[in-house]
Amino acid sequence: MTDAKLTLPKTNSSPWPNRPFHRQYLMRQANNLFDFFEAPSMNPKGGFFELDDDGNPLDADNATRQIHVTTRMVHCAVLGSLIGRPGSDEIVDHGMRYIWDRHRDPRRGGYVWSLDDAGVTNGAKQAYGHAFVLLAASSASLVGHPLAKEMLADVTEVINTRFWEEKSGSVRDEYNHDWSQLLPYRGQNANMHMTEALMAAFEATGNRDYLTKAERIAELIILKHAVPLGHRVAEHFDENWVLDRNYEGNEMFRPSGTTPGHWLEWARLLYQLWVLGEKRLSWMTGAARALFHQSIELGWDSVHGGFFYTLDWDNKPIMREKLWWPVSEAIGAAAYISAFDNEDYFQAWYRKLWDYAENHVIDHQRGGWLSELKEDLTPTSRLFVGKPDIYHALQACLIPLYPTTGSLTKGIIEADHTAKHLV
């Protein structure tokens, strides 16, 4: 029997997310992540430190703050606030003020990629970063942060006027600091995270334009491109959205080939988008299940376990490292799909993925999750130094605990509302 044909024992088939002990396990793992990341990440000069493997700040004397780190920490602190973790609101405020006062460019508009204590270190205006600003502002609005409404309006205007491309139904990727040059590159990663953020903004505001944009991006990236490619998500395109199979870019953010972890991320986002769209677009669920299957069939290492980071177009591994975030996204996808699909396959893989995370990825000695493993699952740091952020692993822990009625924040709020009515 191969990994791809795992089935649950017929005598013990209750889904793990329904079991009290497993639910306690998930919340305990989430709390461990909060303990590892929240207080140690707080930079007294503003923003957040990135942490080494022991949980100590990297470059503590003059740390660079990248926008995706700042914004993701805000989003995760909102999750903490919503589930009732003390201290989270202060972290939300700390991050929101740094985004507004430092990442935001008040003269030219938009939000810069990175800063240190002296000022801007990379002034690029990237759709990827602006997607996470939209996510942070949308999430912070749910806990009533005073900057959330203004930031949400500001970043929405920037996205609509600078990044959104109506003809293609997608966002452009990157400008330089003063908006004077738009790079010809188009990528799915920025559009994927914009889809996530647009859904969060729709939930926060009720403005259907956000949802419509998210649906159009999904149609372009998945229905138009991934489905004809055998449910493999293409990453890199030119300005006319012609696939560039030979693209070679940044190994971390724009690696060559395809990235199975993104297929898994899209699998969950498609189900989420289908639910928010009142289950109108039926193609999304079939595509999501196929993306999950393909990520297992092509991306999972059947010898050692874990997902290869990237594959070439012949489905052979390019970068054989196993990172923490694909398994996190796989867990979230398996949990979300299982809420609507009773096929044993997704439940079986949910269990196998947690077995893998527990035995190889979670750092039980020091805290947090190991960011990178070699092919044989021994720790390495070729791509990442330390433990980059809380975002992926935390959502893997929390998604299985809450209703699949939209995003995780929406699920938490609805579960809390239901609990109040049951008291």
Output the helix-strand order.
Answer: HEHHEEEHHEEEEHHEHHEHHEHH
CATH topology: Glycosyltransferase
User: Biggest sheet: strands, sense, closure?
Assistant: 3 strands, antiparallel
Strand content range: 5-15%
Taken from the alpha-carbon principal axes, the silhouette is globular
Terminal Cα span: 47 Å
Residue-averaged pLDDT = 95
Give the % helix.
40-55%
CATH architecture: Alpha/alpha barrel
Domain count, please report it.
1
The number of helices is 13
Can you tell me the CATH class? Mainly Alpha
How large, in whole angstroms, is the Cα Rg?
20 Å
The tally of beta strands, per DSSP, is 11
Strand order of the largest sheet: 1-2-3
Structural class: mainly alpha
Low-pLDDT residue spans? none
Protein name: AGE family epimerase/isomerase
GO molecular function, one term: isomerase activity
Family: Belongs to the N-acylglucosamine 2-epimerase family.
Organism: Devosia ginsengisoli
Provide the fold topology.
Blueprint: H1 20-41, E1 65-66, H2 67-83, H3 88-103, E2 114-116, E3 119-122, E4 125-126, H4 127-141, H5 148-163, E5 164-165, E6 170-171, E7 174-175, E8 186-187, H6 188-205, H7 208-226, E9 236-237, H8 260-276, H9 283-299, E10 322-323, H10 324-338, H11 344-361, E11 372-373, H12 391-398, H13 408-422
Antiparallel strand pairs: 1-2, 2-3, 4-7, 5-6, 8-9, 10-11
